[in-house]
Design a protein that fits this description.
The structure holds two protein chains of two kinds.
Chain A lengths: L3 H10 L2 H20 L2 H17 L10 H22 L41 H12 L3 H12 L4 H8 L3 H24 L7
Chain B lengths: L7 H11 L6 H13 L3 H23 L12 H16 L1
Helix pairs in contact in B: 1-2, 1-3
Classes of the chains: A mainly alpha, B mainly alpha.
Chain lengths: ~200, ~90
């Protein structure tokens, strides 16, 4: 457990102006992954730093400044998404066409071949390159799929919390996550597992 | 009782649903029966691939990696507004 003096030191050592330079782009990308619109993402980053300035004394130094700022930003993003749901600005219930049709034939059986994943040692995700491919595949998902997938699989929200934040039913959350996973599976196979020199 | 086999597509949907909540007994029966009669390699590996994707996402979440080079940077105007807001907060 940290002492009050140590807590004070950690908070005093935080140079928020420097953190804007060091973490600003990271936070913008984090917000953009979940809200897409640059203007909104920048507003959320601004609110995050303002929130950090107000609660600077609460920084204990037990986590990195990036982790601390990210946790503030996560709350700002969830508040923003809840407000957007209340205002009905974005309808997550409107799922549109099913892009997973292409993976199956008319009888519902697989129309594509299988690519072996487990033989690739990089599958443990300890290499930077495969992490970058995974991130780019998630970022390439259509807006609604990407937002739901990030909130569920990266931020760890439960299906119930998705319902509360985005106003979607459990059933639609399953459908969205299923479609996102199918596309991610395909993207990883195209960009990593089928790429000739990817796992060299 | 005759169990009507489900398609590979339905099996994939159920495997994804199982990542969110336990399946009902009936859904588990349908899935098990599907795997008994279906030998398609995609079906055999699908569940494993979903779990691999989840473990990759967990590592991505923990790693907090720097944004890709193609990602937009915080604009100078936005940085200026943030620094002004921080200064104003310090004065209060």
């Amino acid at each position: 457990m940290s002492s009050p003096a140590k807590d004070h030191d950690a908070a005093a050592e935080l140079d928020l102006a420097q953190l804007v330079e060091e973490q600003g782009d990271y936070l913008l990308h984090f917000a953009l992954s979940r809200v897409r619109d640059v203007e909104t993402a920048e507003e959320l980053v601004q609110e995050t730093f303002l929130g950090a300035a107000k609660s600077q004394a609460s920084f204990r130094g037990q986590s990195s400044p990036r982790t601390w700022l990210t946790s503030i930003l996560k709350h700002k993003i969830l508040d923003h998404l809840r407000k957007r749901t209340r205002d009905k600005t974005v309808q997550f219930e409107d799922l549109g066409g099913d892009e997973t049709n292409a993976f199956f034939d008319d009888t519902g059986h697989w129309a594509v071949g299988a690519v072996e994943w487990t033989k690739d040692p990089a599958i443990k995700f300890e290499r930077k390159e495969i992490m970058e491919v995974l991130q780019s595949c998630i970022d390439a998902l259509p807006d609604k799929l990407r937002t739901v997938f990030y909130l569920r699989e990266i931020d760890g929200l439960s299906t119930g919390e998705l319902q509360d934040t985005l106003g979607i039913s459990s059933n639609n959350a399953w459908v969205i996550l299923y479609r996102a996973r199918m596309r991610l599976r395909e993207c990883m196979e195209l960009k990593w597992f089928s790429a000739g020199d990817a796992s060299q | 009782m005759i169990v009507k086999p489900i398609s590979c597509r339905r099996a994939a949907e159920l495997e994804s649903k199982a990542m969110e909540q336990p399946l009902s007994t009936w859904e588990r029966v349908l899935l098990r029966y599907h795997y008994f009669i279906c030998k398609h390699v995609c079906c055999n590996s699908f569940k494993n691939k979903l779990q691999i994707l989840r473990s990759g996402c967990k590592k991505l979440s923990d790693a907090e990696p720097d944004p890709p080079a193609s990602s937009p940077c915080l604009s100078a105007d936005c940085k200026k507004k943030i620094l002004e807001a921080i200064q104003a907060e310090k004065k209060d």
